Every structure is written in C-alpha cells, then in structure tokens.
Amino acid sequence: MISAILIREGNGFSRCRVSGHSGYAEAGSDIICAAVSILTCTCVNALESVCGLVPRVTENREGMLSFRLPERTAEEDAKAQILMGALKQGLSDLAESYPQYVQLTIQNGGK
User: Fold this and answer.
1) pLDDT in tens, 3-26
2) Beta strands at 102-110 and 2-9: parallel, antiparallel or unpaired
3) Fewer CB within 10 Å: C terminus or N terminus of the chain?
4) Which range of residues forms the domain containing residue 14?
C-alpha cells in the first residue's frame, strides 16, 4: 500500500511524504504507483518552475519521496498552497477510488 502524508503547518501544507508500493500490478505496469509518482513529482517540479521555490527533497529506491517547502514570502506561499492543494486533491481522489492501494493522512505539524 502507498502511504501519503500531507503535513499542515499554520494555514497551509508545508510537507509531504509518500512511501510504499501499491501492489496493484507488477513494477513497471502499476498505474496506481505511476499516478502517485506523477502527482508528487509534478508538484515538486512546479513549486520550482511556477513558484520559484526549491523544496528540500529526499527520496530512495524503496519508493519513498519526501519534500518540505523552504521559507517563503506570503506571495510565494499563496502560489505554493494552490499546488499543494492540487496535490491533496489528486491523492485524495486516488485514495477514494483505490482505498486498498492508497492511504492519505493529513497531519497537523504545528506553527
């Protein structure tokens, strides 16, 4: 199962951690893993290309991707929250459609 955790700090999301494999199909043919990868990688890339923010990213070969937003101005944060909201929506839709393969958790992280 894929575990996705979005962490809210203050009025918006500041971190994301996705780990695991869905087990929906064999590696290389798994549409659920591909969908989660596309959502998270697109969000990370768009934070840089659209918002000018470079998230701190950690990943490994075992299927874990984690990122944290850097310090940002109010204007940068407003743009970043749109992207983070789109990520939440996509992950939520997948978790609702494929609950046996994807779990989304929203956590409060402080601030």
Assistant:
1) 999 999 988 999 999 999 999 998
2) parallel
3) C
4) 2-110
C-alpha dist (Å) from residue 86 to 6, 12, 80: 12, 12, 10
Q: Which residues of the chain have pLDDT under 50?
A: none
pTM, whole model, 2 decimals? 0.93
Indicate which CATH number applies to the domain containing 49: 3.30.70.1490
**Is there a contact between 32 and 2 (Cβ–Cβ < 8 Å)?**
yes
